[in-house]
Amino acid sequence: MDNLLFYQEYEAFYAMARTSAAFAAYCREAFGEDFSQDGFSDAAQVSRVLRHVQPTGDLHMLDVGCGNGKMLAWLQKRLGGSIHGFDYSTQAIATANELHRGDFRVGVMGEIDYPENSFDLITSMDTMYFAPDMAAFVGQLRRWLKPNGMLFVGYQEGDVQPRTTDAASTVLAQALRRWGMPCQVEDITRETYDLLRRKRRAAENHRQAFLAEGNEDWYAMLIAQTDCAQVPYEEFAKSMARYLFVAHK
Predict the structure, then answer these.
(1) Global confidence as pTM
(2) CA nearest 227: which of 179, 193, 188, 191?
(3) How far is CA 70 from its chain centroid?
(4) Which of 115, 127, 182, 198 is deepest in the core (most CB within 10 A)?
(5) Secondary element (H or E) of residue 153
(6) How far apart are CA 89 and CA 96, in angstroms?
(7) Residues 109 and 211 both lie in one domain
(8) Nearest to residue 68, comparing CAs of 93, 50, 46, 88?
(9) CA 168 – CA 118 distance, rounded (Å)
(10) In what order do the strands lie in the sheet with 145-157?
């Protein structure tokens, strides 16, 4: 595990998120809900799932890179069904299994596997770009989906993945086309820019609470994560982009 991208950082992050009241309060202010976010998945973005999926008692949901499972539990309250998730962080999965009733596993994209036709809905918020082989992993997700199952992805370019021309030219869009998965795409780059600026304000509002906990390093990280949005939007959008993909099997 130690050779995986950001593995040690995420182990430390989820250990902090497990106990920090300052971080939970920051998440609620910045994102509208505390999903222990280390990305851009606020409640407004995640709630778009509800436009496409009807509540049902037998719904099976899988989250790719589920963290401590808080987002999945939030969706389960609104959609019913059962929740499944995997993440390479042992800290995150330990917390998920403590907090929620579901199937949570330590696993790595491209290595973990599930039976064919297992899930009605697969979500991936700020995680797909960690796939070592995007086309192969999308093919795997397609196999895991039930017929007519849905894949919901929050996908960013400009950090882990380089910025491309538009949504259609992303590595993810190319992989979906390869596997014949029709999709709808929403460009939420401007929304993300505004969210980054809101994150910065929220971090500053909770600075003293972070410092009182001895978590000044995490406060500094939150501020550093938002530096890219301290420029006019037009400049930001030249190097960063974010999309929501909704694809079907």
Answers:
(1) 0.94
(2) 193
(3) 11
(4) 127
(5) strand 145-157
(6) 11
(7) no
(8) 93
(9) 28
(10) 103-106, 82-87, 60-64, 119-125, 145-157, 241-248, 183-187
Q: How many domains does the chain have?
A: 2
Give, as one character, the DSSP assignment of residue 84. Answer: E
For residue 3, the model assigns a pLDDT of 54
Helix axes 216-225, 21-31, angle to 10 degrees: 20
Question: What confidence score (pLDDT) does residue 191 get?
Answer: 96
DSSP state of 196: H
Quote the tokens at residue 219.
């406060």
Cβ-proximal residues to 59 (8 Å cutoff; 6+ apart), any chain = 53, 79, 80, 81, 82, 120, 121
Range of the domain at 182: 54-187+237-248
Asked whether residue 140 falls in the same domain as residue 95, the answer is: yes
The CA–CA distances, whole Å, from 17 to 20, 42, 83, 175, 185 equal 5, 16, 21, 33, 31
Are 221 and 160 within one domain?
no
Cβ neighbour number for residue 58 with a 10 Å cutoff:
8
SS3 65: coil
Q: Is 36 helix (H, G, I), strand (E, B) or coil?
A: coil
What is the C-alpha separation between 223 and 211, in angstroms, rounded?
14
Pairing of strands 241-248, 183-187: antiparallel
